[in-house]
Every structure is written in structure tokens, then in C-alpha cells.
Specification:
heterodimer, A: 321 residues, mainly alpha, 15 helices, 4 strands, B: 496 residues, alpha/beta, six-stranded mixed beta sheet, 26% strand
Chain lengths: 321, 496
């Protein structure tokens, strides 16, 4: 009985988001016969994998009460390094390890500025964004790298059972893992405690700095993993890689119910729904043949609408409490 | 008492998700009276006040102001009717001056319509003088003491022509001297025909100030008392539904020279306190008292590693601690209950289960995950032993009443089975019954071998619970007294 009650309460948090997703599945098939096509579904999952995987780390960072706007730059820099290493003949496995290592360093620098030097997260990661973007521009000189190893391209283009793209599986698995991690491990719960009340966490003996280091490193690494899948899928690393990635990840987290005004509130599953909603909007507009010129504007309007509906709902809930 | 009635709340019913928190409550306020509102934590005081402020909307019932039925939909409506609220958490702009804060939003304008700094300050100076308060209107609020900030909040309501001022726990952070000043100000306000609703847990203050007292219990009116016709015990009985014998504990008898739990040698923290010596025996309950700024909080925090020590030694159970840090001290089974419950005590969005086990989370690790069943079981035991009133162990702590939040924080401290338990103002903002329960819990912990040190400005609390009391004055420990051989007044003279 109690578990049913808890389940209901958990779903109630996401009621608005689930309703929006459901609305898409009710109305889109009427608007376009291609929508329910298996291929289209998989397409959506594949298209959201870049911002989707980045949004996992972003959600964790926002839950600690911070923000990381350097993910786009860090991802672009690290991925560019690994792409050029692959081109120069290094086995792609090594190249990926090296670029994840660089991502970890970038994340540590962010965490050091924020946790040790007490620099506001927005400023610290803004600096990191400029540094990494700058370095990426230096090494790429505005060119696009193509012709990555064939075996590497499997990560982004491979099919499982002939229909399911590998990136779709990776994103689902990473979300399941992250959701479990945040709910059930000591570090996951510590992230919530540090975000919900950093002083109380410190008094309770939680090492806040360690939690911040973990979170910012994880955030940089998730973005880089997303970037690797992306270049593998498109077989190219353009100079504009990861532009606006941070904003799209933050948007997904916010639509997913993560609070950017105070820490400690948010769920990985909510972010997943947020990412899916953005993916459905884009896909819907594409299928209905809306010109790309209008799409960005319409997306903005829809996102604002979703966030406002959520705000109305949560203000209402807060009042009742 | 034939003054006219300003506010008349009748048959107020309020329920949250099917739970009736107010069940037909009446409340009236006459012109120029101080009317206190009392009740245990969770009796419905704050709900009633929030209805008056337009934050909650009653299910049924009526509110009349000056005999005219009104609907208060939002705080703006309350303000229009001349009601002003001074909350426990002060809302001052810390980097503006006293004058700017007092007139916030209605600053004086010059001929060009621009902000006139001098005229605003003059107006403020005039009002300060009228109320007999010695404060420089040009001073930045950041540099003021809490008591002074509170006075500014009260004056702010006057600059908005408030006829009714609602004060929520205004005296809880004031010392005896500041309290006297505060009472003077209240008397002056009354004289000007301002009516006051006073919400407080401090029986003495309520007795001294109120013309009438309304007591709520479990969402019902449970007595209205008029000045001179009741005693303190009547209020307690009305609040608790039974008389609570004032347990004056006989402090613990401990022979001198037992093993020491904590010894401080010439401990100093720059600009906070200096050269403090303390010797506390194992299993003892010791109090530390002093005025605001005497260094109580700072010493407690320094021992727990939350202030950086400039010189001196901390010796814990015979072991010298060179660099205390909260996580290291917890590992040595020392725990601190901090003064600022909301700021440092708990994580409001997390459940009772998670908050009570916050500092022992690692103990529930089963391979990589947390063993939820074990965690829930331990949290339920803790909640039961503390008598925490809750709907469910999964309820977020932010939604509990103040007294219950404090119990959660104490439960969190005791969960780590401390050898040394430091408490900074353990019963601030907590009702009488919860207070007694907390004392009982501390006694039990002491009997089981925990050494308890209470840092408090409530002298009665220390006298009733501690065997010895250490006296602080301006950042120095000036003496230690046996609490059996000292009265409250003597103690007050020593700290003053």
C-alpha cells in the first residue's frame, strides 16, 4: 500500500511532463503518419543523445546549487583533441581515454575555483568556457575534421538488432545508471544534501569539496562522452562543435523540474523527460515541414510555455503546503 | 476596555490536504491593545497569522476590519488595511542605511523628484528620537546587531502607517537589556494607538506585555485570558492540555578530578575570543553562558572546527586535536547542534529519514548502494525516541513545525552516538513541552555516558540542567559556578 502511495507521489511530480509527452503521442500521429514509425522514434532518441547525455551531468551540477556553462567548450576542446589523435593514427580507445582525462582536468579546475576559491559557478565556468573554446579554435583553426576510423564510427552509427541505434541504447543506459546513482548511493545523496543546505551538510561531516569535485568532473565527462558519440555518428568534428550545448542542457534540466534558483531539487528522470520533450518539439516541427528559420523561435516559445506551466503548478503546490 | 474592535476573525476553518489545522477559531483585536497568541508547535498560530496576511485562504469563516467584512487575498490587501508583519527572519537590506531601510519604497523626494538622502535621514532621525532610540540614521545596517535590525523593522511598519503590527517571536534573540528597550518601544506604540499581535513562546515576555492572551491548541481556541486574571501555569495548562510540572532537575553530582572529556588551553580565535580555558568532565552536563557577542557560539564552532583557531589547544579525551574539522570531529564522535537551525541544521527538501541519518549515511552502505531498509529502520527508531510529530518518515523536514525540526536536528546529532555533544541555543523557538522533552533527551544521553555542553543565553535552562556553568564575558571565560549555589539574578549580574 505504502509503495503504491509513494509511486503515485513520485509520478505526481512529473505529471505535467508526462502529460506533455502523452499529448505528443496522441496528436502527432494525426498530424504526420511518419511520427509513430519505429525509425522516427529511434531518430528522436539519436538526435537527443548529444544534449541528453550532457544534461545528466548538468542536472547533478545544478542540484549542488551551481551551474556549468563550460560544457560546450570543454566538450569541443576534448573531442577535437581526440579526433586529431585518431587521425594521426592513435588507436581510438586510447584517444578517448586521453580526452576523458582532459575533461576530468577541466572539471577539477572548475571545482577548484568554485569549491576552494569560492568563485561563483557562473563566473568560474565562464572563464573555463573561454579557455577551452580558445584552445579549440587554436588547434582547429576553424576547419572541420573528417574521415575518422571506421571501427570508431560504430559507436555512433552502429545498430543493435538492426533497428536500434547504439546511441539510443547508450543514452537510456546512462540515464538509468545516473538515476540509480543519485537515488541510491551515498555520493548521490550527498549531492542533494550539499545543494539543499551546504552548511548543514558540512556540520553533518560531509566533505563538500569532494562532492563538488566529483560533480563538476562528472559534468565535464558526460559532455565529452556525448561529444564523442556525436562525432562518431556524423564522422566529422566541425569547428562549431558544441555551440550552445550548455544552454540546451540547462534548458532540458529546467524543463525537467530541476531548480536553478536554489539547489537540492531535481531528478534525473525529470531531466530525461525534459530532453525528450525538446526532442519531440524539434521532431514535430520537422515533420510538419516548419522552416528551420522559424524553428528556433517556436522552440523558444514552447519551452517558455512548458516552464511557465510547471511554475504555475509548483507555485500552486507550494501554496497548498 | 471599551476600545473599539479593529480585527474580528470568526469561525476560521483551514485545512491542508484534508487535514484540519484550524477548526473554527476566533480572534479579536482591540485598538491599542497587545494581544498575544500562544500555542504549542503545530497548534495553528502561524496558519492563523498567514490567513491574516493573505498567504493562506481559509476554507470558511469571516474576517472583519473596523466592522466591515473584508477578504484578504494577498499580502498587499493586508497592507492596505494597515496590517504590518515583522517576521522572525528579518528582511532588511544590509547594505543600505538605517534611514533608507526605514523608509524603503517611500523615500523622500526633492523638487526634481529624485531621491533626497538628507531629507530621508531627517525624517528617520525624527522618528528615532520620538521613539527614544539612539541610532544614527546614516549608519549601514550590516554593522548593526540583530536587536537593532529588529527595531528598524518595527519602525519600518510605522513609516507605512501601520495600525496593527504583528510580531512573530520578536524577543527570541534579545538579551535582557535589549528586551527592556524593546518593551519600552512597545509601550510607546500602544500609547500612539497602535495595536499589536504578539506571538511568542516566552511565557515571561507574554505575561509582561499582554493585555489579553489567546491560546490555541490543536486548531481550536483553548482559552482567552485578560491581564491580571491568570497565572503562568494557566497558560501552560491551556497550551498543553495538562499541567506540566516545572521540572527543576537536581544537577548531576560528580566528584572533582574525574577523567576529562574536553579541555581547552588558552584557546583563541582572532577577534572572536581569546585565552579561553575550560575543563569538562566525562558524563557531565555543563553550561556556558554569556551575553550576545561574549563568544559562546564562536567557542562551540571553534571546537567543532568551523572557525580557524589562532592559538591554544583543544584536548579531547586526552588526545590533542591540532586541526579540528567537522568531518574529523564527527569521526572522533563529537557533534555540534548549531544555533542557526534553518541555515545549518537540516536540508529542508530531504525527508526525516535522510536528515536524521545524514551524518551516518556511510554506515548503511551495502556494497555501493545505501541499504534503504536499514536506514529507514534507524530513522524510525530515532524519530520515535525523540517523539517527532510527523505524517510519515518520508515527510520533508522543511514542512515540519519549528520544534519538530529541532528534534530532527538533535536526532541527527545523537544518531552518530557522540561522546561529546555540543549544543548552541538548543531550545530557541521551541515550545515549552518540546523544550522539556529536549532536556529529557539530553539527560538520558548524559546518563548513557555522553558529555553534554550547552551554550545558551537562557539562564533558566542552564540552571535547571547543568551541574556547572561557565561564564563568558567579552570573549574570555571569567569563571565557573556550581548551579546549585547560584540564583538567576546572581548569574545575570555575573555576565552583565
Amino acid at each position: 500500500m505504502q509503495s503504491i502511495y509513494r509511486m503515485r507521489r513520485r509520478l505526481a511530480d512529473d505529471a505535467m511532463r508526462l502529460a506533455i509527452v502523452a499529448a505528443f503521442f496522441i496528436f502527432m500521429p494525426i498530424a504526420s503518419p511518419y511520427f509513430l514509425n519505429m525509425k522516427n522514434m529511434m531518430n528522436i532518441l539519436q538526435n537527443i543523445s548529444l544534449q541528453g547525455i550532457t544534461a545528466i551531468g548538468m542536472t547533478m551540477v545544478i542540484i549542488t546549487g551551481g551551474i556549468d556553462i563550460s560544457v560546450g567548450g570543454v566538450m569541443a576542446f576534448c573531442v577535437w583533441v581526440s579526433a586529431s589523435l585518431m587521425k594521426s593514427g592513435m588507436p581510438w580507445g586510447f584517444a578517448i581515454l586521453i580526452c576523458l582525462g582532459i575533461a576530468a582536468v577541466c572539471g577539477s579546475v572548475n571545482a577548484f575555483s568554485i569549491g576552494v576559491m569560492k568563485i561563483p559557478p557562473m563566473i568560474a565556468t565562464l572563464a573555463m568556457m573561454n579557455m577551452t573554446r580558445g584552445l579549440q579554435t587554436v588547434i582547429s583553426r576553424g576547419t572541420t575534421l573528417t574521415g575518422l576510423p571506421d571501427s570508431f564510427q560504430f559507436i555512433g552509427q552502429g545498430m543493435v538488432f538492426g533497428v536500434i541505434p547504439l546511441p539510443a541504447i547508450i543514452i537510456v543506459v546512462l540515464y538509468l545508471l545516473a538515476s540509480w546513482f543519485m537515488k541510491r548511493t551515498v555520493m548521490g545523496r550527498n549531492i542533494y544534501a550539499v545543494g539543499g543546505n551546504p552548511e548543514a551538510a558540512r556540520v553533518a561531516g560531509i566533505k563538500n569539496r569532494r562532492v563538488l569535485f566529483f560533480t563538476y568532473i562528472a559534468c565535464s565527462m558526460f559532455a565529452t562522452i556525448a561529444g564523442i558519440i556525436f562525432i562518431s555518428r556524423t564522422n566529422s568534428a566541425p569547428a562549431t562543435l558544441g555551440t550552445n550545448l550548455e544552454m540546451r542542457a540547462i534548458m532540458a534540466a529546467v524543463i525537467g523540474g530541476t531548480s536553478v534558483t536554489f539547489g537540492g531539487k531535481g531528478k534525473i528522470f525529470g531531466t530525461f523527460l525534459g530532453v525528450v520533450i525538446v526532442g519531440l518539439i524539434t521532431n514535430g516541427l520537422d515533420l510538419m515541414g516548419v522552416s528551420a528559420y522559424y524553428q528556433q523561435f517556436i522552440q523558444g516559445v514552447l519551452v517558455l510555455t512548458v516552464v511557465m506551466l510547471e511554475a504555475i503548478r509548483s507555485n500552486h503546490a507550494a501554496r497548498k503546503h | 476596555m471599551d476600545n473599539k474592535t479593529i480585527i474580528n476573525m470568526r469561525d476560521i476553518v483551514m485545512s491542508f490536504s484534508g487535514n484540519r489545522v484550524l477548526d473554527g477559531v476566533h480572534f479579536t483585536l482591540r485598538e491599542g491593545e497587545v494581544h498575544s497568541l500562544m500555542g504549542a508547535n503545530g497548534a495553528g498560530k502561524s496558519t492563523l497569522i498567514k490567513i491574516l496576511n493573505g498567504i493562506h485562504h481559509p476554507v470558511s469563516g469571516s474576517i472583519e476590519i473596523d466592522g466591515v467584512p473584508v477578504r484578504i487575498r494577498e499580502p498587499k490587501d493586508a497592507e492596505r488595511h494597515g496590517l504590518a508583519f515583522v517576521h522572525q527572519e528579518l528582511n532588511v537590506c544590509r547594505d543600505m542605511t538605517v534611514a533608507e531601510n526605514m523608509y524603503i519604497g517611500n523615500w523622500a523626494r526633492d523638487a526634481m523628484g529624485l531621491y533626497d538622502r538628507r531629507k530621508t535621514a531627517q525624517n528617520a532621525a525624527h522618528l528615532l528620537e520620538m521613539m527614544g532610540i539612539d541610532l544614527d540614521p546614516y549608519v549601514t545596517v550590516r554593522n548593526l546587531r540583530t536587536a537593532e535590525k529588529q527595531i528598524i523593522e518595527i519602525l519600518k511598519t510605522l513609516t507605512r502607517n501601520a495600525r496593527v503590527i504583528i510580531l512573530d517571536e520578536p524577543t527570541s534573540s534579545l538579551n535582557e537589556k535589549e528586551k527592556e528597550n524593546f518593551f519600552d518601544i512597545i509601550a510607546k506604540l500602544k500609547h500612539q494607538g497602535v495595536s499589536i499581535i504578539f506571538i511568542s513562546h516566552f511565557l515571561e515576555d507574554v505575561m509582561q506585555l499582554s493585555d489579553r492572551v489567546t491560546v490555541l491548541k490543536d486548531g481550536l481556541n483553548n482559552g482567552i485570558f485578560t491581564r491580571g486574571s491568570f497565572a503562568k501555569e494557566d497558560l501552560v495548562t491551556a497550551m498543553m492540555g495538562r499541567s506540566v510540572e516545572n521540572t527543576v532537575y537536581r544537577p548531576l553530582d560528580l566528584t572533582e578530578g574525574g577523567p576529562l572529556a574536553l579541555e581547552l588551553q588558552h584557546l583563541s580565535v582572532e577577534r572572536k575570543f581569546s585565552d579561553v580555558d575550560m575543563r569538562i568532565q566525562v558524563g557531565d552536563i555543563v553550561g556556558v553562558c554569556g551575553l550576545l557577542g561574549a563568544g559562546k557560539t564562536e567557542i562551540a564552532r571553534a571546537i567543532f572546527g568551523m572557525e580557524s583557531i589562532t592559538s591554544g589547544k583543544i584536548i579531547l579525551f586526552g588526545e590533542e586535536i591540532s586541526q579540528p574539522r567537522p568531518d574529523r570531529m564527527l569521526a572522533k564522535r563529537v557533534t555540534l547542534l548549531t544555533e542557526e537551525r534553518k541555515l545549518e541544521g537540516f536540508v529542508p527538501l530531504l525527508s526525516i529519514r535522510e536528515n536524521t541519518t545524514l551524518s551516518i549515511l556511510k554506515h548503511f552502505r551495502r556494497r555501493v548502494t545505501i541499504n534503504l531498509d536499514a536506514q529507514r529502520k534507524r530513522a524510525e527508531e530515532l524519530a520515535a525516541s525523540m517523539h517527532i510529530k510527523m505524517a510519515d518518515i518520508e515527510q520533508p523536514v522543511g514542512s515540519l513545525s519549528g520544534g519538530n525540526q529541532q528534534k530532527v536536528v538533535i536526532a541527527k546529532c545523537l544518531a552518530s552516538l557522540p561522546r561529546l555533544f555540543l549544543l548552541d541555543e538548543p531550545t530557541r523557538g521551541v515550545d515549552v513541552l518540546a523544550k522539556l522533552e529536549i532536556y529529557k533527551i539530553l539527560r538520558k544521553a548524559a546518563e548513557e555516558g555522553t558529555t553534554v555542553v550547552i551554550f545558551s543565553s537562557e539562564l533558566e535552562e542552564l540552571l535547571a540542567n547543568c551541574s556547572k556553568i561557565i561564564i563568558l564575558k567579552k570573549g574570555r571565560a571569567v569563571g565557573m559556578v556550581d548551579s546549585n549555589q547560584v540564583t538567576k539574578n546572581e548569574l545575570m549580574a555575573m555576565i552583565g
